[in-house]
Design brief:
Helix content is 80%, strand content 0%. It has helices at 5-29, 33-38, 45-56, 59-72, 77-106, 111-119, 124-155, 159-208, 211-221, 234-250, 252-255, 264-296, 305-313, 316-354, 360-384, 389-413, 419-440, 453-469, 476-483. It starts with a helix and ends with a helix.
Amino acid sequence: MENYIPMAITILVIYLLMNVGVGLYGMRKIKSAESYYTSGHAMGPWAVALAFGATCYSATLIIGFGGKAYDVGASLMWVAASNLLFMTYLVWALLGKRVRKLQEKVGAFTVTEMLVKRYRTEALRPVLAIVVAFSMIAYTVAVLTGTARLFEVLFHIPFFWALIIVIFVIGFYVTTGGIVSTVYNDFLQGIVMFIGMVLLFLFVYSRVGFTSGYELLGKTFGETFVSMPGNITWWSLISICLVTSLIPWGMPQIVHYMFIARDAKAVNRAIPIVTIWTFVIVYAVYYVGPMARVILGAGIHTDKVIPTLIATIMPPLAIGIILSSVAAASMSTMAGTSLQASFALSRDLYQKTISRGTSDEKILFISKIITICVIVFSALLAYKQLANIAETFMIGAAASCASFIPILLCGLYWKRGTGKGAIASSTLGFATVVIWSLLFGSDGQGAGGIHAIIPGQIVSWLTFPIASLLTKPLDPEFIRKIMD
């Protein structure tokens, strides 16, 4: 047994038990379907900010894109810059208060329900529910794979048993405490992630430095690793920037965190908190990725780079903290994605479309069962290892963003948008992503590195205004009430 394993396991077990405890606490707070979905709008700025950050940045970022930076080089620092501006600051500044106010005015539990009521068409509900279920499951698979890979490398346990450990803990606290447990755990996980990534950055910096590390990277492995666009095409770099930066604009599990804020003031106060937190996390990840090549050498599997780096350079106590931080990142994201998939299938598809007479009490029970099924199904797909972490994540994110971003942004800022325009935009955007990925590969290499998110966004943004202008506008009085 490696000398770090007993200490790392001890710290991780303590952390996981804290997660279970939060699940039990959250269970006492759940009195209705509304509290399960929205926490009763009781969360302050710190809880909302760190929950948002911990859900956005998971093992997909730390393990998946840290490994991607190992393969590509320093050019992915531009991804960090785009993430900080577009994925964090602008999304809160442009969406935060408006989403919270619209949700309150229409009385929605989920993002899909908010958009259905905004565009006054029930036909939009099953379309978005299917998109959410597909995207969230793909995202959950990526997160599960990243966490299980970490356990596999550090603890030398089979990938299968690593998956079992992760799904048990997350499944428990999500199904017992719903969004309340998820937010409280995310707050805890956001703190642990911050500490863990600072430690990882400092240990790597102490080994190779900053400027000297990049100089050594270029001299040893070639100037490609320290020049633009790195070991990928310009289109690939642009695609990665787009996919990672558009996540909170078009992924409902992240937009949903704006629902739970106490009020618009809490949203405003969350902006500087989440911006500073994000700066530390993303720049640490995209720095340690290329430096891992300097420390470890070439030839390591993309998804095993960061776990191997952690095991190589860090002492037992730090490994335990880092392991907990990545587990924290993964659990927070997977909790959000599995809950959203459950919300989509149970409330948006079943209760509001298939069986409209189902009571909120019954749908609460059904939601918990579906959450468990989503987690187990995602674990089975992760076990099959159909693609690497980054590629799996990018497909799910691209599909969700193509379906949600135009209708969400226009729903908040453009009064002329219609239900038929929203249905056409979401359907064609989603179909474009799926077809493009099937034709040209999950990473778009068959199309010169142009990822499916680019044609998906183009099609959905063109379709929405054209279809809306060609169809009957919504009642002006209704629009005035919800948008003014």
